[in-house]
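Practice problem 4.
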């Protein structure tokens, strides 16, 4: 092979390696390389595997009068003509005189000799390089070897490109699987949250809103017809949502029978969207074993300036969904753009509690604990409060049960601990602060880094308050954790004493330092009453076990004096100071 041919092959190999696609390589061959080899004509075909045919995709000579354009490209079947024969037999076809070949196919001009070289990848024909010449017996072994070398380079690029495309398809498939629900094909929770996050950070001039959708009778369908029928129902509902939702609205399945939609006022108003979603499930759905009508409850929430996290936005819509479900009928509710007193406090708590815990937006008040004999303040109990900008003060008796139901109570405890850490700067050096701990926190005391760090820093100036009920529910774990705190100097108060279970039977086992007499015994305290008898018993019990006593709920002078006469040393309540 001459040096010119070797140089052309070398240049083609190098430039092919830097080409982006197979198409770029083919046009490099026909526009640049072939011309330097003295060929009159050269056409490259690629295989169309759908019908085992070859289509012209790049050319040099008469077939390409314009740059990178094939003039009137033709398609050949495998086996048709000399080119088709090379593809079918997977070997080079060199015909010195086409007049002696009955299969010769005339393309743009009738010529006398033809050389067709297949492009093979892993034993499959992916294309053919075909060259014709006006002279018979033009092509030599050198021409054949050159085209075969060029075909090998194209095959390598084709294989590389195929691997890249396959990898890309695999990555796209993996990304699709990660972001879509496998049953319905809708976007999943992860994808929906990503959409919502994007809208949150790129707020448009349009009013954006979120809708949460729950199927009203899905469980009854599942119970009656089985999970396969339930899956068919979910797929049918998803298809119906896709059909009825306005263009531009984004739908996702969050899990179970819960769906969610993101849209804007330019697509449909929240009222219109609520009506569309509810109406879409009022018609029967065929689940193969029966026709069912499930209905939908929908909660919607607009994205306003007060929403800084997706979780807050979701909870607003979820609170409205919760309210609508409670009615027991299909319909929709929209979270008010401006909260007012008409919105149930429970729904406000449900919608905003998690966000408030995450940013610790609570107030913590300190109620003094005083020595009755001297009126000196010896310590304080930390009491959590929620000062809502519209609804005013929301008491712990309202939001703590909801926090427990939502699994947020440990986060609430930590909010108080973090606040108390700062409040120690405001109290005297010999005064303590007591913190209430929930049953959920008691089981994980040794893992609460916030509490343990505070205990290490302030020691006996920190007290923790636990109830009898919480201790009984987590006795072994609670006992271990509380002993760990006591080893750091922390005192343990047993709160609401006398209202629990069998206090006397296990009291001697509890790692506590002080009993707090429940306010229910203090409020009705007077001589010769059962309340007085209970208080006397508690004092005697505490004395025998060498425990301190604090009376809660003191509101009058008479109560204070009566408790002191019974031997109670410490007390707290509105009489000594409002929290």
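Answer key:
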């Amino acid at each position: 092979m001459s040096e010119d041919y070797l140089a052309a092959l070398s240049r083609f190999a190098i430039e092919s390696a830097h080409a982006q696609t197979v198409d770029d390589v083919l046009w490099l061959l026909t526009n640049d390389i072939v011309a330097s080899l003295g060929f009159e004509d050269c056409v490259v075909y690629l295989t169309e595997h759908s019908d085992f045919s070859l289509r012209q995709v790049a050319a040099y000579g008469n077939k390409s009068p314009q740059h990178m354009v094939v003039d009137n490209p033709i398609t050949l079947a495998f086996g048709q003509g000399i080119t088709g024969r090379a593809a079918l037999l997977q070997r080079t076809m060199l015909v010195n005189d086409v007049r002696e070949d009955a299969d010769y196919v005339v393309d743009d001009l009738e010529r006398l000799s033809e050389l067709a070289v297949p492009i093979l990848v892993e034993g499959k024909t992916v294309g053919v390089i075909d060259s014709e010449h006006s002279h018979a017996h033009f092509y030599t072994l050198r021409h054949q070897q050159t085209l075969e070398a060029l075909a090998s380079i194209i095959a390598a690029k084709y294989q590389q490109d195929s691997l890249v495309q396959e990898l890309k398809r695999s990555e796209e498939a993996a990304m699709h699987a990660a972001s879509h629900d496998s049953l319905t094909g809708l976007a999943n929770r992860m994808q929906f949250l990503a959409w919502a996050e994007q809208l949150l950070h790129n707020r448009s001039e349009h009013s954006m809103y979120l809708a949460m959708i729950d199927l009203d009778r899905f469980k009854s369908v599942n119970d009656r017809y089985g999970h396969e029928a339930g899956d068919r129902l979910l797929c049918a509902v998803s298809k119906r949502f896709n059909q009825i939702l306005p263009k531009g609205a984004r739908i996702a399945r969050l899990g179970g029978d819960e769906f969610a939609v993101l849209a804007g006022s330019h697509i449909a108003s929240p009222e219109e969207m609520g009506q569309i979603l509810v109406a879409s499930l009022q018609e029967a759905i065929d689940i193969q074993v029966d026709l069912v009508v499930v209905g939908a409850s929908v909660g919607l929430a607009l994205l306003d300036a007060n929403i800084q996290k997706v979780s807050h936005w979701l909870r607003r819509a979820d609170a409205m969904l919760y309210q609508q479900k409670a009615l027991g009928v299909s319909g929709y509710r929209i979270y008010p753009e401006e909260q007012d007193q008409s919105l149930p406090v429970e729904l406000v708590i449900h919608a905003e509690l998690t966000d408030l815990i995450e940013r610790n937006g609570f107030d913590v008040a300190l109620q003094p604990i005083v020595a009755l004999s001297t009126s000196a303040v010896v310590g304080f109990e930390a009491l959590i409060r929620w000062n809502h900008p519209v609804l005013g003060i929301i008491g712990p008796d309202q939001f703590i049960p909801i926090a427990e139901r939502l699994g947020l109570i440990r986060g609430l405890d930590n909010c108080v601990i973090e606040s108390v850490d700062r409040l120690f700067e405001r109290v005297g050096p010999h005064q303590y602060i007591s913190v209430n701990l929930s049953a959920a926190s008691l089981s994980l005391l040794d893992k609460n880094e916030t509490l343990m760090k505070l205990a290490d820093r302030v020691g006996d100036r920190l007290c923790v308050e636990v109830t009898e009920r919480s201790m009984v529910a987590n006795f072994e774990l609670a006992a271990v954790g509380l002993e760990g705190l006591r080893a750091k100097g922390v005192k343990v108060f047993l709160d609401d004493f006398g209202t629990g279970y069998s206090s006397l039977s296990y009291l001697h086992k509890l790692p506590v330092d002080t009993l707090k007499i429940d306010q229910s015994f203090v409020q009705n305290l007077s001589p010769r009453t059962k309340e007085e008898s209970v208080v006397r018993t508690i004092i005697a019990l505490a004395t025998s076990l060498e425990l301190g006593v604090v009376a809660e709920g003191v509101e009058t002078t008479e109560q204070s004096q009566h408790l002191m006469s019974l031997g109670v040393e410490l007390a707290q309540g509105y009489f000594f100071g409002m929290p």
